[in-house]
Specification:
The complex is a heterodimer of chains A (357) and B (323).
Chain A: H1 5-8, E1 18-28, E2 33-43, E3 47-51, H2 58-66, E4 74-82, E5 85-86, H3 92-98, E6 103-106, H4 110-113, H5 120-131, H6 136-150, H7 156-159, H8 169-181, E7 187-191, H9 199-216, E8 219-224, H10 227-233, E9 236-241, E10 244-250, H11 251-256, H12 261-268, E11 318-322, E12 328-332, H13 334-338
Parallel strand pairs in A: 3-8, 3-9, 6-7, 7-8
Antiparallel strand pairs in A: 1-2, 1-4, 4-5, 9-10, 10-12, 11-12
Helix pairs in contact in A: 5-6, 5-8, 6-8, 8-9
Chain B: E1 12-21, E2 29-39, E3 44-48, H1 55-62, E4 70-75, E5 78-79, H2 85-92, E6 95-99, H3 112-122, H4 127-140, H5 145-148, H6 158-170, E7 176-180, H7 188-205, E8 208-212, H8 216-222, E9 225-230, E10 233-239, H9 240-243, H10 250-258, H11 296-300, E11 306-308, E12 311-313
Parallel strand pairs in B: 3-8, 3-9, 6-7, 7-8
Antiparallel strand pairs in B: 1-2, 1-4, 4-5, 9-10, 10-12, 11-12
Helix pairs in contact in B: 3-4, 3-6, 4-6
Classes of the chains: A alpha/beta (357), B alpha/beta (323).
The complex binds adenosine-5'-triphosphate, iron/sulfur cluster (2 copies) and magnesium ion.
Residues 21, 29, 31, 49, 51-57, 214, 278 of chain B line the site of adenosine-5'-triphosphate.
Chain lengths: 357, 323
């Protein structure tokens, strides 16, 4: 899934249709490349998690897919193919024909995505009308109720007339999801949809996304800082670091045997239930470089326990090995690509021809 | 200041603490509805619960920042819930607070060294001595005093500001450190650094900590005991090894099951419905409207915290722990 699309994407993989393909995407401001050469695909009916820490470029990538980049941030290079059509340089009018119909987005803070002065039913109806202007009053109302039922909001007839502040955080996020579903998108981009919620509510919302996917076969791009969420909910993962892709692959392969040292460190830093209580957690010294201050080499080099002199000089090529189910695990690293070096987590990476499906 | 603490006497003792707010139509909001627990010296107690369960209110009323409606609080043998004015302020110097947003502990117009000095100056430490100690503290929390002492909070990252807030909190060697979600807003790698810092400070200084968090993995990692709060009452309190390994209360089980990435060999306990309003809590067991195990008795009889193994559980039908 990382770069090198011309060679690797077609081999071995079973015939899963690709809905979105991002090729060598560069997004930035006048002074910094916030997303720097990112390539990945979103297969139909699957969940792809974009994982990384703050500033890694997850949200900028997700927003680029929706044509919703903030002012002053632009696509500087690469392509975003939605059903084979490059949308990356679309103007706002062209975007309106894609956004919603092909892709919809759910944001972290449900309160900010909703209009506080408008009843919930009216807000969903607005979204319904936008994509289906000919429905008429009764049809619209039926569709709104259908959407509320789809997102499992109890007592939908009553909820129609409530305002966002009358709903709990979880219910608000369900309303936001209902609005995103109004257009029957093929891809739902969910940017930290549960970060503002409690664990129990988070589990309910993530269950809902799973159910919706099972029901209507949509793809989900799940942006999260929590690799445990990705582990539980995604089929594939893209680990980002400082605007670039560190590692991708089937989530189980990446979590069980991460290859890129950053992925290893990220997983090891989580105080999971498998770690000895009160033991010191393995940490990564320092902080990621600001995108305007990346060196010419591997962005992780200043913090990497395995770094060598060459790591500062050039960006490593993609190394890959077969993963499960015909996927490939891919990562960029000079050192772990060639040898069987154990990472900071202690587990040795498998050899290049590693675990076979 | 340096009274020796006996092993038997808890450092913090909270008894039947209640905090009600005036609510709609005369029904008070029972944010904290009778909470009892102890914290031993050198112990770290985690408090977990969902949004609105009353964690923050519990802390505020426990520390008399917003005096409780009823109940008592003893810190190191002193009944702080009966103190007022200067006496209370003096007693509160034994306690320091750390919040999720560390900026709320620091004055943005002050250089970090001055923020760290302030509690020491209030405790009567001379200016030069306070500054000398502050530099040591900055180093102690893992920052270089040459670089950071004269910075303003806005010039630091979230993790760095949290380190400074911790330095300030431990500056006066408080008997008790109370932390409200101190690592929740941090990135995983920074969170790990701060968790380690707490652990090191604990080992070196023998700190007693009350640690609020909604992240059960963090609590399991850092705490000795855990108290599970639901709608203002405790469901279960006891050693982390027992409560989070084999929960006896269905709510604890549901919380655990919601932790992402936990390997599971059985169906999750999924909560029905929503948190009821604290101004109209369910009769009997407060958890019963969402409990998958609820029975008739649960609607009429309030379950009291009673010993189960090494823990205490408030449930009429606790789940059995295998020995
Ligand atoms: N000053 C107040 N006036 C009225 N109600 C209040 C007040 N402070 C808190 N409450 C209510 O008391 C209950 C407990 O709130 P509290 O803030 O203690 O929860 P919490 O467990 O800290 O939640 P969170 O995880 O969101 O921080 C909530 O229903 C809240 O709305
Ligand atoms: S390329 Fe070098 S610096 Fe980058 S992750 Fe690999 S070993 Fe570390
Ligand atoms: S007392 Fe009843 S309702 Fe409450 S937790 Fe136990 S079984 Fe559930
Ligand atoms: Mg709180």
């Amino acid at each position: 899934m990382i770069a090198e699309t011309h060679t690797q994407s077609t081999t071995a993989a079973p015939a899963v249709e690709t809905v979105v393909e991002v090729r060598n995407l560069v997004v930035g401001t006048a002074t910094a490349r916030l997303v720097d050469g990112v390539s990945f695909t979103v297969p139909s009916g699957r969940t792809v998690a974009l994982v990384g820490e703050s500033g890694a470029g997850k949200s900028v990538s997700a927003r680029a897919l929706m044509g919703l980049l903030p002012a002053g941030v632009e696509v500087l290079g690469g392509e975003i193919l939605v059903n084979g059509r490059d949308v990356s340089r679309f103007n706002p009018r062209q975007w309106r024909s894609v956004r919603g119909r092909e892709l919809s987005m759910v944001f972290q803070n449900p309160l900010r995505s909703l209009n506080p002065t408008m009843r919930v039913g009216a807000q969903i109806a607005e979204a319904v009308r936008l994509y289906d202007p000919k429905l008429g009053r009764a049809g619209e109302r039926a569709r709104v109720l259908e959407l509320l039922e789809q997102v499992r909001i109890p007592d939908p007839e009553r909820r129609l007339f409530e305002y966002p502040h009358q709903l709990s955080g979880g219910m608000r996020q369900r309303v936001v999801i209902a609005i995103a579903l109004a257009s029957n998108p093929r891809v739902l981009i969910a940017d930290e949809p549960t970060t503002a919620l409690d664990v129990t509510t988070q589990a309910q919302i993530l269950d809902l996304l799973d159910t919706l996917q099972a029901e209507n076969g949509m793809s989900i791009v799940l942006v999260t800082h929590d690799i445990r969420v990705a582990e539980e909910r995604a089929h594939e993962v893209i680990v980002m670091y400082s605007g670039r892709i560190a590692e991708t692959g089937r989530i189980g392969d990446v979590v069980r045997s991460p290859m890129m040292p950053y992925t290893r460190a990220l997983i090891a830093a989580v105080p999971s239930f498998d770690v000895t209580p009160r033991s010191l957690l393995p940490t990564i010294p320092g902080r990621p470089p600001h995108p305007s201050q990346r060196s010419a080499g591997c962005a992780f080099a200043p913090r990497c326990p395995l770094a060598e002199a060459r790591c500062d000089l050039a960006i490593p090529d993609v190394t890959s090995r077969p993963g499960n189910n015909g996927t490939r695990q891919q990562w960029r690293c000079f050192v772990t690509g060639k040898t069987d070096q154990p990472g900071p987590t202690g587990q040795a990476g498998a050899s290049e021809e590693g675990e076979k499906a | 200041m340096t009274a020796t603490l006996s092993e038997q006497r808890p450092l913090l003792s909270v008894r039947d603490l209640k905090k009600f707010f005036p609510g709609p139509a005369g029904a008070p909001i029972q944010a904290v509805a009778g909470v009892t627990f102890d914290v031993q010296p050198g112990e770290v107690l985690g408090i977990v619960g969902e949004t609105g369960s009353g964690k923050s209110t519990l802390i505020r009323s426990m520390l008399m920042l917003d005096p409780p409606t009823a109940g008592t609080v003893d810190i190191d043998g002193e009944r702080i819930s009966s103190l007022r004015g200067t006496k209370l302020r003096e007693a509160r110097q034994n306690v320091q607070l750390i919040f999720q947003d560390p900026h709320s502990c620091l004055d943005g117009r002050w250089r970090v060294i001055d923020s760290i000095c302030e509690p020491m100056r209030n405790a009567g430490v001379s200016r030069t001595e306070a500054r000398r100690r502050a530099r040591k503290l900055i180093e102690r929390v893992g920052l270089d005093p040459h670089t950071y002492a004269s910075k303003f909070p806005r010039e630091l990252s979230g993790g760095q500001v949290q380190r400074i807030a911790i330095a300030r909190a431990i500056a006066t060697s408080p008997k008790l450190l109370v932390c409200d979600e101190p690592v929740s807003a941090l990135d995983v790698s920074v969170q790990a650094q701060i968790i380690n810092l707490f652990e090191e400070l604990r080992r070196d200084l023998g700190l007693t900590i009350v640690f609020i968090s909604h992240d059960l993995s963090v609590v399991r990692h850092m705490c000795d005991r855990v108290a599970v709060l639901y709608l203002g009452t405790l469901c279960e309190v006891g050693p982390v090894t027992e409560v989070l390994q084999q929960p006896a209360h269905p709510y604890t089980q549901a919380l655990l099951d919601a932790v992402p990435g936990q390997a599971r060999d059985r169906e999750r306990v999924v909560l029905k419905g929503e948190l009821p309003s604290p101004s109209a809590p369910p009769t009997g067991c407060r958890f019963r409207t969402r409990c998958p195990m609820a029975q008739e008795r649960c609607a009429v009889e309030v379950p009291e915290l009673s010993p189960t193994g090494d823990a205490f559980v408030a449930c009429h039908f606790p789940m059995r722990r295998s020995a």
